[in-house]
Amino acid sequence: MMDRALWITWYDLPEEDRDAYLDWAHRDYLPGLLDSGRYLHAAHFASVPPGTMSQTRKSLRHSQDASVPTGCQYIQIVGAQDAAAFGDPVPSALIASLPEDMRAMLAKRVGVRENVMVEATRVAGLEEKSYADGMRLPPCIQIGSFQCAWQHEEEVHAWYTQWRMRAMETLPGVIRTRRLASVGGWAKQAVLYEFTSMDARNRYFTQHEANRPDMKAWSDRAVENLVHAPGSANLCDRIWPPVGAA
Question: In 45, 91, 110, 165, which residue has its Cα 20 to 30 A from 15's Cα atom?
Answer without folding.
Answer: 91
